[in-house]
Amino acid sequence: MADLSGTDLDQLLGEARKTLESMRQGGGAAPDRPAASRSEQLQGIGEAAGGRITVTAVPGGRIDAVRLDPRAMRMASEELGEQLALAVNAALDDLRAKSAAAGADQAVDTAALSRQVERLQNDGLRQMALIGQAITESLSRIGGAR
After folding, report:
1. Rounded distance, CA 117 to CA 86, Å?
2. What digits encode the pLDDT tens for the residues 104-140?
3. CATH classification at residue 59
4. pTM of whole model > 0.90?
5. Burial 128-143 (b: 16+ CB within 10 A, else e)
6. Count of domains for the chain
7. Are residues 94 and 44 in contact, defined by beta-carbon separation less than 8 angstroms?
8. Strand ranges in 49-96 using DSSP code E only, listed in sequence order
């Protein structure tokens, strides 16, 4: 049985967290893969008012950018609001479609995740046993010193 240091346990926990975070975000990326840069990030694009309004949506249901052509500012406020809502909804719909397609392309390897979690659990139990043994030995020494 190999001794698991605090650093090793921390590394295992970090790998598990990265893998689970990747799953939560809908990607099956390997834990060592760096996060996508803003330009590579999955985005949904929506347009309205004949292309005078463009909205970019990103994962998490967030709006990353709203671009208004100066001509859009000539619209009545009600019409501008309606067109903005259309562009936002189109961007979110586009993002959902792209996310679904990306999810089909990036299936999560649940077997690998299961093996990693099992390894983490086993290593954690071994570490806890070692800690318990050390505590018992220390208490025995303290009790014998009296």
Report:
1. 44
2. 555 556 667 777 777 877 777 788 888 888 899 999 8
3. 3.30.1310.10
4. no
5. eeeeeeeeeeeeeeee
6. 1
7. yes
8. 53-58, 62-68
